[in-house]
């Protein structure tokens, strides 16, 4: 029997999200259909909206549901996501936000393609794409399962309806719609959860959280220490190289503001984790066999493993009055639906710009790229929906892809942003292969993928790798990238390999049109030129500057950095007789 009140609640909040998304999409300047306007909201996101949308990078449906589940199943000490993602925003702001925004990039993959070329950039696009698509699919799948339990709505109907709403307003307004619905999303989560907590806490079937019978803190066994550290590092550094984060960074008005937003959002991640932590603890202290919950329970009276993923909606439904749960469930469901939009936009932006334009159609017009992105939004939305409906282990797929983002993309992004002169395409390809092999060799229980290597500390009984093999894969990838890049330069410059063997054109066999836009440099400084795709610019400057200005990525959207001025920076030169900017050509590039 469908819960009519629940359906009305969810429809009302869905309409609210949809209305805000359509209204925000109308904020685009009339007739302006440029890449930056649609993908980055014209780099005009203000401070207030910026704080909310940056916080919503990680705070969404998966974040609040996962936090509550972790508290219930393992305890507070194992709830690493809030602290891990908060630190990822801090480190992202310290080491990546400023240089990425100052360069005027449009997507996270731009600096990688700058250094390694279109073909290698396309290869690096795969883990980034899969991570975004599987994340959106996982959100939709979790939402569908939740609505089935809460209002008895058909699973397929709820998933398809939610996906259509998210895709529609994203298609209509781009990042404007995503950013402004993020504001509503966080308000819905915060108010909806805090409204329900007092009633759930006061429920007579809930034991005092200070009671010794309720262990919601948990503990870490000594044999799991390295496993614990491995996952912590995965969340911190693996949470940086995601387009959903850099989408917000690159849409900020200035580089300094992008850093400030990252720091404030880190604080926001911690604040927004408090309600689901309390709800998870309340669920842990609940005698579920005494409530009106009629589902299957363990002999001890606890929820089964199949039901723990729905801890948060179950608490709202069974431990709070119907009027309170009416608003709480509607708000949470709408927020979960809304959190899929940024992943859809991120994957579509990277495909339209970094694959379609920069690999297949270098001369494509702005309008053509926008239409490709719109089609991509629909395709990604359909793919995510199909996966949510058909793949039972969608969380396992996303978990594997998030690992690949950590072990493959993080070392490469770190090198091209800060050590660009010490990496090239040969090192990138070798590092990619090494990281992929080491990670896959560790297996993935959620996917039924057996381990090829039993690392030290292998737990045969639980089939768990206790050794931090993910971090090992990341470190080996970083070392391989630097070493193979150095080795390739040494072999070519020493004459062991002929210039004709420089297949990627990134050491000695450098095309003339790439040399022309660079100042003279030694061989060791010529390591990061494009791999076989000459004459390509990545910033807005590619369509706004003349042939004599191609040595710099001059982005007219960049403003004076009032939020975080660098005392070493002189006045920003404009086009004309002012001194030229530092070289940011397709050949050797500076780190900042």
Automatic annotation (TrEMBL):
<keyword id="KW-0813">Transport</keyword>
<feature type="transmembrane region" description="Helical">
    <location>
        <begin position="6"/>
        <end position="24"/>
    </location>
</feature>
<keyword id="KW-1133">Transmembrane helix</keyword>
<feature type="transmembrane region" description="Helical">
    <location>
        <begin position="224"/>
        <end position="246"/>
    </location>
</feature>
<feature type="transmembrane region" description="Helical">
    <location>
        <begin position="429"/>
        <end position="447"/>
    </location>
</feature>
<dbReference type="InterPro" id="IPR038377">
    <property type="entry name" value="Na/Glc_symporter_sf"/>
</dbReference>
<feature type="compositionally biased region" description="Acidic residues">
    <location>
        <begin position="559"/>
        <end position="568"/>
    </location>
</feature>
<keyword id="KW-0915">Sodium</keyword>
<feature type="transmembrane region" description="Helical">
    <location>
        <begin position="369"/>
        <end position="391"/>
    </location>
</feature>
<dbReference type="GO" id="GO:0005886">
    <property type="term" value="C:plasma membrane"/>
</dbReference>
<keyword id="KW-0530">Neurotransmitter biosynthesis</keyword>
<dbReference type="Pfam" id="PF00474">
    <property type="entry name" value="SSF"/>
</dbReference>
<dbReference type="GO" id="GO:0005307">
    <property type="term" value="F:choline:sodium symporter activity"/>
</dbReference>
<feature type="transmembrane region" description="Helical">
    <location>
        <begin position="123"/>
        <end position="151"/>
    </location>
</feature>
<feature type="transmembrane region" description="Helical">
    <location>
        <begin position="70"/>
        <end position="97"/>
    </location>
</feature>
<comment type="similarity">
    <text>Belongs to the sodium:solute symporter (SSF) (TC 2.A.21) family.</text>
</comment>
<feature type="transmembrane region" description="Helical">
    <location>
        <begin position="45"/>
        <end position="64"/>
    </location>
</feature>
<feature type="transmembrane region" description="Helical">
    <location>
        <begin position="258"/>
        <end position="283"/>
    </location>
</feature>
<feature type="transmembrane region" description="Helical">
    <location>
        <begin position="397"/>
        <end position="417"/>
    </location>
</feature>
<keyword id="KW-0769">Symport</keyword>
<keyword id="KW-0812">Transmembrane</keyword>
<keyword id="KW-0472">Membrane</keyword>
<dbReference type="GO" id="GO:0008292">
    <property type="term" value="P:acetylcholine biosynthetic process"/>
</dbReference>
<keyword id="KW-0325">Glycoprotein</keyword>
<dbReference type="InterPro" id="IPR052244">
    <property type="entry name" value="Choline_transporter"/>
</dbReference>
<feature type="transmembrane region" description="Helical">
    <location>
        <begin position="183"/>
        <end position="204"/>
    </location>
</feature>
<dbReference type="InterPro" id="IPR001734">
    <property type="entry name" value="Na/solute_symporter"/>
</dbReference>
<feature type="transmembrane region" description="Helical">
    <location>
        <begin position="323"/>
        <end position="348"/>
    </location>
</feature>
<keyword id="KW-0406">Ion transport</keyword>
<keyword id="KW-0739">Sodium transport</keyword>
<feature type="transmembrane region" description="Helical">
    <location>
        <begin position="467"/>
        <end position="492"/>
    </location>
</feature>
<protein>
    <recommendedName>
        <fullName>High-affinity choline transporter 1</fullName>
    </recommendedName>
</protein>
<feature type="region of interest" description="Disordered">
    <location>
        <begin position="547"/>
        <end position="592"/>
    </location>
</feature>
<feature type="transmembrane region" description="Helical">
    <location>
        <begin position="157"/>
        <end position="176"/>
    </location>
</feature>
């Amino acid at each position: 029997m469908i819960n009519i009140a629940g359906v009305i609640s969810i429809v009302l909040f869905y309409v609210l999200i949809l209305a805000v998304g359509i209204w925000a999409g109308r904020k685009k300047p009339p007739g302006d259909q440029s890449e930056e306007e649609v993908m980055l909201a014209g780099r005009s996101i203000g401070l207030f909206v910026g704080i909310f949308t940056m916080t919503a990078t990680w705070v969404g449906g998966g974040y609040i549901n996962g936090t509550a589940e972790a508290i219930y199943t393992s305890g507070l000490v194992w709830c690493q996501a809030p602290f891990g993602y908060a630190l990822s925003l801090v480190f992202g702001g310290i080491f990546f936000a400023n240089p990425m925004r100052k360069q005027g990039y449009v997507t996270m993959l731009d600096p990688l393609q700058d250094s390694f070329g279109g073909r290698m950039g396309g290869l690096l696009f795969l883990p980034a794409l899969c991570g975004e698509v599987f994340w959106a699919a996982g959100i939709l799948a979790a939402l569908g399962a939740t609505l089935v339990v809460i209002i008895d709505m058909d699973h397929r109907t709820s998933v398809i309806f939610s996906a259509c709403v998210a895709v529609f307003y994203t298609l209509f307004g781009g990042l404007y719609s995503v950013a402004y619905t993020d504001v509503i999303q966080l308000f819905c989560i915060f108010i909806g959860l805090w409204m329900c907590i007092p009633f759930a806490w006061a429920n007579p079937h809930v034991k005092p959280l200070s009671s010794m019978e309720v262990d919601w803190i948990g503990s870490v066994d000594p044999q799991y220490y390295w496993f614990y550290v491995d996952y912590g590092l995965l969340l911190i550094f693996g949470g940086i190289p995601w387009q959903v984060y850099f989408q917000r960074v690159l849409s900020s008005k200035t580089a300094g503001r992008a850093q400030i937003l990252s720091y404030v959002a880190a604080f926001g991640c911690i604040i927004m984790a408090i309600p689901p932590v309390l709800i998870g603890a309340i669920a842990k202290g609940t005698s579920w066999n005494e409530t009106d919950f009629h589902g299957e329970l363990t002999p001890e009276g606890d929820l089964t493993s199949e039901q723990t993923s729905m801890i948060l909606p179950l608490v709202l439904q069974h431990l709070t009055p119907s009027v309170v749960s009416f608003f709480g469930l509607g708000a949470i469901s709408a927020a979960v639906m809304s959190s899929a939009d940024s992943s859809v936009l991120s994957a579509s932006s990277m495909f339209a710009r970094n694959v379609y334009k920069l690999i297949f159609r270098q001369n494509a017009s702005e309008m053509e790229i926008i239409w490709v992105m719109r089609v991509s939004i629909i395709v990604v939305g359909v793919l995510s929906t199909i996966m949510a409906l058909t793949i039972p282990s969608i969380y396992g797929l996303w978990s594997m892809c998030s690992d690949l983002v950590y072990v493959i993309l993080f070392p490469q992004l770190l090198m091209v942003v800060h050590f660009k002169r010490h990496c090239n395409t040969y090192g990138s390809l070798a590092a990619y292969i090494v990281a992929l092999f080491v990670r896959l060799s560790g297996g993935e229980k959620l996917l039924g993928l057996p381990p090829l290597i039993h690392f030290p500390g292998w737990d045969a009984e639980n089939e768990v790798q206790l050794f931090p093999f993910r971090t090992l894969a990341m470190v080996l990838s970083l070392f391989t990238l630097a070493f193979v890049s150095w080795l390739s330069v040494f072999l070519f410059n020493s004459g062991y390999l002929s210039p004709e063997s420089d297949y990627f054109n990134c050491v000695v066999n450098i095309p003339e049109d790439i040399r022309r836009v660079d100042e003279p440099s030694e061989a060791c400084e010529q390591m990061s030129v494009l791999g076989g795709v000459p004459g390509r610019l990545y910033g807005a400057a590619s369509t706004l500057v003349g042939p004599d200005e191609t040595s710099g990525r001059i982005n007219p959207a960049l403003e004076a950095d009032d939020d975080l001025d660098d005392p070493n920076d002189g006045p920003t030169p404009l086009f004309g007789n002012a001194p030229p900017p530092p070289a940011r050509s397709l050949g050797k590039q500076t780190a900042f």
